[in-house]
Amino acid sequence: MRLVESKVTLYLTYTALAILLAITLFPIALLVLNALKPAAQIVQNPLTLPDTIRWDNFTRAWQDARFGRTMLNSAMLAASTIVLVCTTGSLTAYVLARRKIKSWKIITFYLLGTTTAPIQLFLFPLYFGFAKLGLINNILAVSLIYTALYSPFAIMLLRTYFLAVPKELEESALIDGASHWQVFTKVMLPIVSPGILTVALIIGLYSWNEFLIATTFLQKADRVTAVVSVFLLSGQYTADWEEIMAAALIIVLPIVVLFVLLQRRFIEGMAGGAVKG
């Protein structure tokens, strides 16, 4: 009886996973399908197979969206944000994990509040402030905004990793003559590296796909990000759908490839971050 119940449970589990997989992959499959079609066939029926494969959709999308420049802008923005968030987040998380702070509940409330607060609340003050300082169309300045937005999440996740590290490791390193900075860089960071990698992947994904701040603060043609350049492909009254689909697929591919290559480390990092702090 137990064997039958276990088999039924296993079949139900695999069925549920298959359904979830189909739901997850359907938008990507639809994107690939329509990226290879002419516009007329997309409008007629986006679910059919292409009559003729239009590889030139990708070359036109690359040229019209100026991906050679815009993807470089997105990469620079994501890389600078990752470095800033991982650096400041790991330092802050280490201090919060190792120091007894009486106002920890207030800090937790602040971190949760800043994580959930919509960026629209700060958009206009930020824009006028950046305009006064001459920081509009500055990629590094936009990465500072992203750092402020994403740091609370990084701090709360990395703090759980530092809490899981036994204090005896730090004490033994200090007894051997290491400074507090050496303990942090040579002992703690290698141990919590899966968490830092997880934060880097998530923050990189957020920065790569972010639209509202990028289109507000990066307005020059040579400062536009890849996501904004895809949006600019559609006109006010017309849209070249096969080109837009191809451009969207070009943007998605680097993220998918990166996640596939690092999925094991990413899953391990997320599982490690579930430790209760």
Automatic annotation (TrEMBL):
It is found in: Cell membrane. InterPro entries: MetI-like (IPR000515), MetI-like_sf (IPR035906). Pfam families: BPD_transp_1 (PF00528). Keywords: Cell membrane, Membrane, Transmembrane, Transmembrane helix, Transport. Residues 71-262 form the ABC transmembrane type-1 domain. Belongs to the binding-protein-dependent transport system permease family. The keyword Membrane applies. Its main location: membrane. SUPFAM superfamilies: MetI-like (SSF161098). The keyword Membrane applies. PANTHER family: ABC TRANSPORTER PERMEASE PROTEIN MG189-RELATED-RELATED, LACTOSE TRANSPORT SYSTEM PERMEASE PROTEIN LACG. One of its GO terms (biological process) is transmembrane transport. It is a multi-pass membrane protein. The chain crosses the membrane at residues 12-36, 75-97, 109-130, 136-158, 187-208, 244-262. CDD domains: TM_PBP2. One of its GO terms (cellular component) is plasma membrane. Coiled coil: none annotated. This is Carbohydrate ABC transporter membrane protein 2, CUT1 family.
